[in-house]
Amino acid sequence: MANREPVVRSLLENDLYKFTMWQALLHSHPGAQAEYAFVCRNTTAFPLALLKEEVEEELERLCSLTFAQDELDYLRSLRFMKSDFVDFLSVFRFQRRFIEVRADGDRLVIKAKGPLVHVMGFEIFVLYIVNELYFRRLPSGTEVQQVARERLRGKIAYLKEHKAALTQDAEFPFIFFDFGLRRRYSGEWHEEVVRTFAEEVPEHFRGTSNVLFAKRYGLTPIGTMAHEYLQAYQAFGFRLRDFQKAALEGWVQEYRGDLGTALTDVVGMDAFLDDFDLYFAKLFDGLRHDSGDPAEWGEKALVHYKKLRIDPRTKRLVFSDGLDIPRAAGLYRHFAGRIPTSFGIGTDLSNDTPHKALNIVMKIMSCNGQPVAKLSDTPGKTLCEDETFLAYLRQVFRHPVKSA
């Protein structure tokens, strides 16, 4: 460890939605237990099991860190962060006993199990620890940096060249955010990307999910909820058919109008809209897309708002699934003048190098001893270890099996 730079630099270097979900669940279900599992979805240049010892060293260091006073002060300055939650963070430490790392042949197995409000925070750290350790083992140097910087300059040139098209809706121009923390090439490169976009195209680049970078560069921290928040409600004692409504109501009660973007794809867009009635449609500012065809998804949202007699231009669609800037720009043009849009772009910003990016996740698998699941609108993104529960969930929400 002493011979290399540590990966984790601060407990504040986490995605904002981890803090917002953490606060909501600490207040509503402080005693919940959960299990999270790490999954790599693609082939790798070498077996990830080779990273086991280094990952363990990084986790030992993570568990020694605490929030600095200036970091706590920053969180307290965000109007949706409650004072008691920041007080909780002031004494919080990750517990090494709640996370296990082992090698299973070539596979790297990482599981976090324990109180939900302790283990949920491991996710993003584990993902960018594995990413950075992985890419440190691949060829680096000036050639990789040169290619990455050329691609970054190309993105900025595209934004400047297409400025007219990206301000097609004068009231709501094209805006995007950095969502690249979990799958970044390295902390140093991620910071350079964020800083460069903030300096070069501030009219389009409006924030980052990385709370440390938001603090450091005076950017807006971006994020509301992720799948794990809604999935946990599958195990909180509500009728399964009602878990989405219970989760959305819990969010409304916690944030009272702040952080009003709802995630739609835990059991598919159609099932979500069945639950997203006039009450929720008026209370939430908009919707976030994370699987399935984005244009089709957006058209369904427009039809739904119009059916409820809500002016779509008073709401917003946020897209965040596998985007690059040209694809996001195409979606902006598709919906311009009909509904405001914004775009969370991850891997293509923070890990666009000559090396193939890892497709890794760390997802909640069970809560309170019961399986939980996501039924994705994208084939291959559904994740559940219990086929019986998955089949039951499909039946309850009439969700079709989608082949890859």
Automatic annotation (TrEMBL):
Residues where Phosphohistidine is found: H227
Pathway assigned in UniProt: Cofactor biosynthesis; NAD(+) biosynthesis; nicotinate D-ribonucleotide from nicotinate: step 1/1
Domain Nicotinate/nicotinamide phosphoribosyltransferase, chain residue ranges per copy: 175-400
Domain Nicotinate phosphoribosyltransferase N-terminal: 12-131
PTM section of the record: Transiently phosphorylated on a His residue during the reaction cycle. Phosphorylation strongly increases the affinity for substrates and increases the rate of nicotinate D-ribonucleotide production. Dephosphorylation regenerates the low-affinity form of the enzyme, leading to product release.
Pfam families, per database record: NAPRTase (PF04095), NAPRTase_N (PF17767)
EC number(s) per entry: 6.3.4.21
Catalytic activity line of the entry: 5-phospho-alpha-D-ribose 1-diphosphate + nicotinate + ATP + H2O = nicotinate beta-D-ribonucleotide + ADP + phosphate + diphosphate
Gene Ontology terms for molecular function: glycosyltransferase activity
UniProt KW Electron transport keyword: no
Protein keywords: Glycosyltransferase, Ligase, Phosphoprotein, Pyridine nucleotide biosynthesis, Transferase
Function text: Catalyzes the synthesis of beta-nicotinate D-ribonucleotide from nicotinate and 5-phospho-D-ribose 1-phosphate at the expense of ATP.
Homology family: Belongs to the NAPRTase family.
Name of this protein: Nicotinate phosphoribosyltransferase
Lineage: Bacteria, Pseudomonadati, Pseudomonadota, Betaproteobacteria, Rhodocyclales
Gene coding for it: pncB
